[in-house]
Design a protein that fits this description.
- By secondary structure, the protein is an all-alpha fold.
- The protein has 2 domains: 72 residues, RNA polymerase sigma factor, region 2, helix turn helix motif (Rna Polymerase Sigma Factor, Chain: A), CATH 1.10.1740.10; 69 residues, Orthogonal Bundle (Arc Repressor Mutant, subunit A), CATH 1.10.10.
- The protein has 8 helices and no strands.
- Helix 1 crosses helix 3 and helix 6 packs across helix 8.
- It is rod-shaped and about 95 Å long.
- It starts with 5 loop residues before the first helix and ends in a 29-residue tail after the last helix.
- GO terms for molecular function: DNA binding; sigma factor activity.
Amino acid sequence: MSSPAAPLKEALLAQIPSIRAFALSLTGNRDRADDLVQDTLMKAWAAAASFQEGTSLRAWLYTIMRNHFYSQHRKRWREVQDVDGIAAAGLISLPAQHGHLDLADFRVALAKLPADQREALILVGASGFSYEEAATICGVALGTIKSRVNRARQRLMQQMAVESPNDFGPDLGGAVAATPARPGAGPA
């Protein structure tokens, strides 16, 4: 005695060579094609009640396979293959608390600088002007600006008890006031 599902089972098994060829054309890989065939048959078996007698079983299976393949393809496209963990390691976010505290300390120390040194440091260090441009803006000699910037940096480092860029939090990556603004600007 056979069950009512027996004819569907036999019909599904008969379609395996055809759907396997289609799966191979979609994936280009035998192992992935076999997985796709298996997934298609599992989905078809689970949805057997939705198959309408008298319609093309082959077309129904192709539709299931195609939809499953493209769903998996879209899913894989959004995923990152990261076997060795390199991509995940790049996604870390360091805590920002140290940066906020360092910035607050920096602002207090900057406010304590003499106005001429603060102005020179902001022009060269924060605004990105060259020493020559800052000297022109302030109406002083080039050496005067270099001296002011150097003294301002030294005083800031002293006030903040900074000996190296590593003394700042991990999210800042270095001391703004302790390094030149751009390549070629060089320390005074």
